[in-house]
Amino acid sequence: MRFLLDDEQREFARSLDAMLTASDTPAVVRAWAAGDHRPGRDLWARLAQAGVFALAIPETYEGVGPLPVELAVAFNELGRHAAPGPVVETVAAAVLLADVGGAAAKEWLPRLASGAASATLRMDGYGPYALDADAVDAVFTVTCDELRLAPGPGALSVSSDPARRLWRPGPGGELLASGPRVAQASARAARWAAFATAAQALGTGEALLRATVAYVKQRTQFGTSIGSFQAVKHRLADTLIGLEFARPLLYGAALALAGEASDAGAQVAAAKVTAGEAGYAAARTALQLHGAVGYTQELDLSLWLRKARPLRDAWGTPGACRARVLAGTSPLGA
User: Fold this and answer.
1) Is residue 22 classed as helix, strand or coil in its secondary structure?
2) Cα(162)–Cα(142) distance, rounded to whole angstroms?
3) Above pLDDT 90, what percent of the chain?
4) Residues near 63 by Cβ (< 8 Å), separated by ≥ 6?
5) pTM value?
6) Separation between Cα atoms, residue 153 and residue 43, nearest integer Å
7) How many CA atoms lie within 13 A of 314 on its CB side?
8) Beta carbons of 45 and 171 less than 8 angstroms apart
């Protein structure tokens, strides 16, 4: 099946691309990894002004969503530019709060939509960490069907991507809601988190492939560009095919989410595993074809290389996603 964006969606992508390019995201990522969140917060405000976070929030709470196709467009651009921060987690928290409703939704959702506040989320079944908990205004946790506002960031753990700062939330916190509705809302939030992560992984892979193609045109060996070597062409072609195969799965999942299809969970899982594996394959190709320079941290390429594997595994490992696809139903599809 072929999916084509309309003129408005393509213009949205172009405007985000221009904004992120002007924001010098490599410098923002390096500052974020060093614990300096000011540039990242400034970028966050510009993303909110562009309406990125409002895409996941209903109009009832001053959002414009849910609009999964536009969300895929936005997160694809965020991946292409390696934008740091818990952008996926903010979307997932917004979906969770909107489904749970109540005072917490009324308090936080308008602020998340406008960018006046940022959030991260940790849920049972998706690891013990809350991404970038030290940089946000709210850390939401779901444990044993209880939604809580965590008291603080807790302890920092090492990540393969320095710009993904993993924190263990502290115990306790304010109880916001509990019971079956939290369990149902959590399943839907995880589904949207996996979907947004898939779009981010696809964008990351696209950026890595583009950088690699540019590099092999410039690097010479035996007096000729290595991009003319058959083995290099085949490797790049395989990488491109993987990325292009993932794209229709991503937009198919977006349409399933928009229509609340019964198999939306399986479609999201298929998109997540395919985009995640394609992005990771693009990272391996980029590292191999750049040679020794690919290992250099000073090279901006490293900022994308370090993201590919964490994005592949976040909000559903490849094994877990394949199991959900085979089962046809899952926590993501509940």
Assistant:
1) helix
2) 25
3) 86
4) 53, 54, 55, 56, 57, 94, 109, 113
5) 0.95
6) 22
7) 32
8) no
